[in-house]
Amino acid sequence: MNWLKTFAAAALVQAAFLLPAHAGENLQAIKTAGVLKVGTEGTYAPFTYHDDSGKLVGFDVEIAEAVAQKLGVKAQFQEGKWDGLIAGLDANRYDTVVNQVGITEARKQKYDFSEPYIASKAVLIVKDGNSYIKDFADLKGKKAAQSLTSNFGKLAEQSGATLVGTDGFDQSIQLVLTGRADATINDSLSFLDFKKHKPDAPVQIVAQQANADYSGIIIRKGEPELLEAINKALADIKADGTYTKIADKYFGQDVSK
């Protein structure tokens, strides 16, 4: 039965690599290495993307860098596709993911989240001068430009709108601007980013959902010291004005609530 002992020993060694040996080990390892390894997409503007020079930039990138600085280390980014991004935590490819990861009950069963650092709401967008749509209920019988499989599309349909299918936010806005759709329900953060780049675009928000969706910095379970340190770092960058500076740069206002 020596092969059983060998197999068991190998399994224990593998487990030792996958799990912290004791509380606080990963935080200490991060500080010793001087690097916080961060998983992110790199293709999701304005949160994490490459600018014209090829540099990785974005709201989430700067938040991760600011948090790492408060921990006394540097952020080191590893890019990957969204579908496998969170799974990268399981494989120990990085310490955390900073990529607009929504805080959901399902995810909280397997991972830990920091305190929320950004909030988004479903907003109703119409062309300037539109006087007949003032709330979601006013969409009944109107045309809404929506990605058909999105939650925003479902909300528009529930409000009685006829959906005009689009590929995403930019196309939806264009249909509203050209009058081919009466309105679009979309993400408040996407709208703020759009207006930041095109402040004179004649579109406006006329209503928004009361409840926001929140995103947080996600880590593996069993690392309470790292979670506490990240939460303290987030609180610190909000207190010293760093968060406000980053939010103003990308959205023109505070987007934490």
Describe the protein's architecture and organization.
This protein folds into two domains: 2-118 and 215-251, Periplasmic binding protein-like II (D-Maltodextrin-Binding Protein, domain 2, 3-Layer(aba) Sandwich), CATH 3.40.190.10; 122-211, Periplasmic binding protein-like II (D-Maltodextrin-Binding Protein, domain 2, 3-Layer(aba) Sandwich). The chain is 40% helix and 21% strand. Strands 4-1-5 form a three-stranded parallel sheet. The model is unreliable at 1-21 (pLDDT under 50). Helix 3 (59-71) packs across helix 10. The longest helix has 17 residues, at 2-18. Strand 9, helix 7 (151-158) and strand 10 (162-165) form a beta-alpha-beta unit. By secondary structure, it is an alpha/beta fold. The termini are far apart.
